Amino acid sequence: MSPTSHDRPHDADASSEPAEPARRRFLQSAAAAAALGAAPHLRAQNAPEPANAADTPTPPAVPAQPVRLDINGREYVLHLEARVTLLDALRDYAGLTGTKKGCDRGQCGACTVLADGRRINACLTLAVMHEGQRITTVEGLATTGVPATIQRAFIERDALQCGYCTPGQLCSATACLSEFAAGTASAVSADVRTRPAQLSDDEIRERMSGNICRCGAYANIVAAVRDAHAASA
């Protein structure tokens, strides 16, 4: 006797039987993943409270030490911590605020000064590293109140707008002219083994490329450096 329709399972019931274990495994996996995701949060919430700050010994402060700096021909004795940068020493301790703090990362050149005639970014070096060197800032470029040749050229060529980058530009241009006079080649020199033939505009741009002028006075800056070079020659 063949089974009737009441004796046979419905098709829907038959198809749902194999899906039930898969559904159960999916729910179990989801629950396990949620538990693992919440574990770090629970550990953070249940972490022991930190000890009382009063119970933690405070490390002793590093005492300031006298640092002797020759700045613009004058000796300064500054009491500084070892971590004080040359830029902060000039501005905050020596009171020479002509050197500007721009990016404070050595990228803009606003803090350029001269150390024994070599241009450096004052924000990237420590003051204690320059004892015994001659530091020249923008305040030291003029002689007995008379502007230096490069300073006059910047004024005549209107090579500044807001003026914030100008101290660094002037110090960098001073070193640029000294380097060329000494025969130092640049990346655009035709032959780096020989003295550059002339201080072309390309040479000036390359040698001054470490100083950013956000106002965009580059054409006048190049002209000012070119005029100063011609005057000194």
Written account of the structure:
The protein has 233 residues and is an alpha+beta fold. Among the domains are: 65-140, Roll (Ubiquitin-like (UB roll)); 149-232, DNA polymerase, domain 1, CATH 1.10.150. Helix content is 38%, strand content 11%. The chain contains six helices and five strands. Strands 2-1-5-3-4 form a five-stranded mixed sheet, with helices on both faces. The termini are far apart. The model has no long low-confidence stretch (mean pLDDT 87).
Based on the model shown, name its key terms:
DNA polymerase, domain 1; alpha+beta; Ubiquitin-like (UB roll); five-stranded mixed β-sheet; 233 residues
Q: Can you count the beta strands?
A: 5
Assign the CATH architecture of one domain.
Orthogonal Bundle
Helix content: 25-40%
Broad shape:
extended
Count the DSSP helices: 6
Low-confidence stretches: none
Task: Kindly identify the CATH topology of one domain.
Answer: DNA polymerase, domain 1
Order of helices and strands: HEEHEEEHHHH
Top-tier CATH class of one domain: Mainly Alpha
List the helices and strands and how they pair.
Layout: H1 11-45, E1 65-71, E2 74-80, H2 86-93, E3 112-115, E4 118-121, E5 134-136, H3 149-156, H4 166-181, H5 201-207, H6 218-232
Parallel strand pairs: 1-5
Antiparallel strand pairs: 1-2, 3-4, 3-5
Helix pairs in contact: 3-6
